[in-house]
């Protein structure tokens, strides 16, 4: 979905991912930390995509296994993960989201305009067009 | 009278602009967790977890 947005609006859209691990999702916090550890090793987005495919298998062995699958140096990855090197940063994202009114996931902000919940591509397109041109695209007419 | 009306209009416009400025949240950006040019006209911030 977000990859399609980048492809359809090259150079016009920046995507920013922020962690918001819900307390009810036991594996969400370590998964978020693991993705950042992968980011330290230059593979954040690949690991991020892998996690969405692999959910909810987020035991430590799973997280290390995904790093291994991406060819990351496992020793460096586990040092980062086990040391909780990004725990504070994840919690800072969580606090930032709460301050902005985020209550559930996913929540999006398109140039500051909040969109709550998973949305179809067309909803993003309308929000992007609105942000770019001040108008939403017209619905395509049936021939 | 006209001056008063102009002043009131100015206050109203500034109030709306100020309120909008306050409404738009500002987020910190970790460049590792961002895709696309930093000066893109549209920024989509996603708060999510992986589960």
Topology:
The complex is a heterodimer of chains A (143) and B (51).
Chain A lengths: L1 H7 L4 E7 L8 H13 L3 H11 L5 H10 L4 H9 L4 H13 L7 E4 L2 E4 L4 H13 L10
Antiparallel strand pairs in A: 2-3
Helix pairs in contact in A: 2-3, 2-4, 2-5
Chain B lengths: L1 H22 L10 E2 L6 E7 L3
Summary tags:
heterodimer; A: 143 residues; mainly alpha; 2 domains; two-stranded antiparallel ribbon; 7 helices; 10% strand; B: 51 residues; 1 helix; 2 strands; extended
Report on the structure:
The complex is a heterodimer of chains A (143) and B (51). Chain A is mainly α and 143 residues long. Helix content of chain A is 53%, strand content 10%. Chain A has a two-stranded antiparallel sheet. In chain A, strand 2 (107-110) and strand 3 form a beta hairpin. Chain A folds into two domains: 1-10 and 103-143, no CATH class; 21-101. The longest helix of chain B has 22 residues, at 2-23. Chain B has 51 residues and is an alpha+beta fold. Chain B has one helix at 2-23, and strands at 34-35, 42-48. Chain B starts with a helix and ends with a strand. Chain B has one helix and two strands, in the order αββ. Chain B is extended and about 60 Å long. At the A-B interface, helix 1, strand 1, helix 2, helix 3 and helix 6 of A face strand 1 and strand 2 of B.
Helix-strand makeup class of chain A: mainly alpha
N/C terminus separation of chain A: 27 Å
Strand order of the largest sheet of chain A: 2-3
The number of E-state strands of chain A comes to 3
What is the radius of gyration of chain A?
Answer: 17 Å
Q: Compute the CA-based radius of gyration of chain B.
A: 19 Å
State the helical fraction of chain B.
Answer: 40-55%
Number of strands of chain B: 2
| Strand residue content of chain A | 5-15%
Helix content of chain A: 40-55%
pLDDT < 50 stretches of chain B: 8-21
Low-confidence stretches of chain A: none
> What about the largest sheet of chain B?
none
Mean model confidence by pLDDT of chain B: 74
Distance between the termini of chain B: 62 Å
Mean pLDDT of chain A: 92
Q: How many individual domains of chain A?
A: 2
Secondary-structure element pattern of chain B, one letter each: HEE
Q: What is the molecular shape of chain A? A: globular
